[in-house]
Specification:
Rossmann fold
Length: 193
């Protein structure tokens, strides 16, 4: 698979706008500002194909990026408190529409900021993916922000924080800054199609 041939395809703000799924999809979910767009850019060897912002809540649409044979899907982040209630409702409806529309979702990459304990939002998302029978991989972002002993400590705690949702699940430290984890994530995508 040539990740360098990726293009931005479409963005949808409402669930009823979503088009049918005709390629295997790999979606990226997580809290606002966890690094979903940065991860997609790194996977696709691009600096700004997926729009990145230091401001949480920037991705308010479901964004589709197509490679030769798969789609990468950048989902809106959750857990950002400074968004209006109507916007939160729209995001929730959009996410329900995405996951409930019978799409060919091969894998969800659940992104969690490695520097912090797993949040209730993260647990809820993983529980939802599990109930929907969507395979998932946990990606611990911003790994470059921790030193070696802090990284080892977080890795030892993460399984306990995830509980049963972390059993038999691949956990990958990732850094958009130094490229850690990028090749492992690419291999997962390539092996899944």
């Amino acid at each position: 698979m040539n990740f360098n041939n990726a293009v931005f395809e479409k963005a949808f703000a409402l669930a009823n706008q979503l088009e049918a799924s005709d390629l295997p999809e790999f979606c990226f979910c997580g809290r606002s500002n966890v690094g979903k767009s940065s991860l997609i850019n790194r996977l696709l060897n691009r600096k700004s194909l997926a729009r990145v912002s230091s401001k949480p809540g920037k991705t308010g649409t479901v964004n589709f990026y197509r490679t030769d044979s798969v789609r990468l899907v950048d989902l809106p982040g959750y857990g950002y408190a400074k968004v209006s209630l109507s916007e939160k409702d729209r995001w929730a409806e959009l996410m329900d529409g995405y996951f409930g529309s019978g799409r060919n979702i091969v894998m969800a990459f659940q992104l969690i900021d490695m520097r912090h304990p797993v949040s209730e939002f993260d647990i809820s998302m993983l529980d939802f993916l599990s109930q929907m029978k969507i395979p998932y991989t946990v990606v611990l972002t911003k790994s470059d922000k921790l030193n070696k002993s802090e990284t080892l400590n977080r890795l030892s705690l993460i399984k306990n924080e995830l509980g049963v949702l972390g059993e038999n699940v691949r956990i990958i430290p990732f850094s958009a800054y130094n490229n850690e984890g990028t090749e492992e994530i690419r291999r997962i995508i390539e092996a899944s199609v």
